[in-house]
Write a structure and sequence with these properties.
Number of helices: 15
Largest sheet: 8 strands, mixed
Bound molecules: adenosine-5'-diphosphate, aspartic acid, magnesium ion
CATH class of the largest domain: Alpha Beta
Strand order of the largest sheet: 3-4-2-1-7-9-10-8
Number of strands: 16
Strand content: 15-25%
Radius of gyration: 24 Å
CATH architecture of the largest domain: 3-Layer(aba) Sandwich
CATH topology of the largest domain: Carbamate kinase
Distance between the termini: 39 Å
Number of domains: 2
Helix content: 25-40%
Length: 438
């Protein structure tokens, strides 16, 4: 049994949806995880933002525009009048549901219910498409088995038990369809795995059933050595280790959700990244196999804030860092990068929700400076301690870019640097030229 996850562009229009039928209709049992059609989640976020702002007129207009877009999809997707009618009813039920939130007090729970509509629609449309083509399949509602706990982390035990129970009801079905991204929280409310979360659903379900492979189908031929949105000449990497892929995803490579490698790594299940528009291409294979290369890839993560704490009390003291870390822990704020000197420590975070409270508490220990709009650049390659020469190459490449923090030696296969976000594109291009000769 394998998992096949198709992202937004892979189901972005009727032609694309039809083109994935031959990919899933083979001999092996498949669990097909679908995202919303491309652009839909963004539109649903916009509708929610308008409702938060009380702009009900504009929210309603956007909702109707999206409904109209889906009417066209339905017209083109199905050939028979019967399925077109089914499609229209389906679309109306979802957009009427969203309409129900207009003119009411709006909060987080309503927003999450609205965001879930994209995946609920795409999976139902696809299930009906298979059915119109006489291809048997089952649609399993992700809200019956995908769950996060009070900390917002996936509840793997619950997911495995409930997903297997649902699967066991359909032992002879070869195609199982479900929604990516959406889940319930510890209180049973509709929630999600954060933007890009369908990859995470795929990996969590793969781990739950011990799948033979987790395939992530997207709009590019696998993992590239650099971010193709900002760098012109990038090349595909054919093999990556779990650790390398996890590091790159965590540090901003949009092709994979930041946490999505972890469940696959824990169960040692290969992850394959494939291009729906070029299915013959082998894509990228992510396994526990580690192939050393001086430089493999670069990724960038924006939205970073740095806190610089200076304190004479740190000099020769023990227990100082514990006190610093406890403050971050109290506000449930994970730390990304850290550098220290005798009297100062710099710490980066990607969630600024409690930054003022954290800074306030840190001031008990010393002076605190905050800088926002920072970017972490992560370079993955061979940085084992016995290797020489990599640091000068990287510094030479980034000669013209002010480096705010450098983290070297924390991992044998990556280096992280902190720069100003305004320097990101230049830094990615310089690294591409000097480290990859591209
Ligand atoms: P999907 O909708 O299928 O989940 P995403 O847009 O989330 O697709 O991810 C694919 C996109 O990730 C690519 O189109 C590409 O622009 C971007 N991307 C960023 N970094 C990389 C990288 N290192 N390798 C490949 N793609 C990347
Ligand atoms: N539809 C969701 C998003 O756009 C989840 C995903 O595509 O992975 O973030
Ligand atoms: Mg994605």
């Amino acid at each position: 049994m394998k998992i096949m996850k198709f992202g937004g562009t892979s189901v972005g229009n009727p032609d694309r949806m039809r083109s994935i039928i031959p990919l899933i209709n083979g001999d092996e049992k498949v669990i097909v995880v679908l995202s919303a059609l491309s652009g839909t989640t963004n539109s649903l976020v916009e509708i929610s933002d308008l409702l938060y702002a009380g702009n009900t007129g504009e929210a309603s207009r956007k909702n109707e525009a999206l409904r109209a877009k889906y009417y066209k999809v339905v017209e083109d997707l199905y050939s028979s009048a019967e399925y077109k009618k089914k499609g229209h009813e389906l679309i109306n039920s979802h957009f009427d549901y969203i309409n129900g939130f207009i003119n009411h007090t709006f909060g987080k729970q309503h927003e999450k219910a609205i965001l879930a509509q994209g995946e609920l629609i795409s999976t139902a449309l696809f299930h009906n498409l298979l059915s119109e083509n006489q291809i048997p399949s089952v649609l399993l509602p992700a809200l019956n088995f995908m769950r996060i706990d009070k900390e917002g982390e996936p509840d793997s035990f619950y997911i495995e038990e409930n997903f297997k129970r649902e699967l066991a009801l359909h032992p002879d079905e070869k195609i199982i369809i479900t929604q990516g991204f959406i889940c319930r929280n510890a209180y049973g409310e509709i929630d999600n795995l954060k933007r890009g979360g369908s990859d995470y659903t795929a990996s969590l379900l793969g781990a739950a059933v011990n799948a033979s492979e987790i395939e992530i189908w997207t709009d590019i031929n696998g993992f590239h050595n650099n971010d193709p949105r900002f760098v012109e000449k990038t090349t595909v990497i054919r093999e990556l280790s779990f650790d390398e892929a996890a590091e790159l995803a965590y540090f901003g490579a949009k092709i994979l959700h930041p946490s999505s490698v972890n469940p696959a790594r824990e169960k040692n299940i290969p992850v394959r990244l494939k291009n729906t528009m070029d299915p013959a291409d082998e894509g990228t294979l992510i396994t526990s196999n580690f192939i050393l290369r001086d430089y493999k890839a670069v990724a960038a993560k924006d939205g970073i804030s740095v806190l610089r704490i200076k304190s004479a009390r740190m000099l020769m003291a023990y227990g100082f860092l514990r006190k610093v870390f406890e403050i971050f822990e109290a506000y449930k704020t994970p730390i990304d990068m850290i550098t220290t000197s005798e009297v100062a420590v710099s710490i980066t975070i990607d969630n600024p929700a409690y930054i003022e409270q954290i800074a306030h508490d840190l001031r008990e220990l010393g002076t605190v400076e905050i800088e926002q709009n920072q970017t972490i650049i992560c370079i993955v390659g061979d940085f084992r301690t016995e290797r020489t020469g990599s640091a000068p190459e990287i510094f030479e490449a980034l000669n013209t870019i002010p480096l705010k923090m450098i983290s070297y030696g924390g991992s044998p296969y990556s280096i992280s640097l902190l720069i100003d976000t305004k320097d990101k594109i230049e830094a990615l291009n310089l690294l591409n030229k000097f480290l990859f000769n591209l």
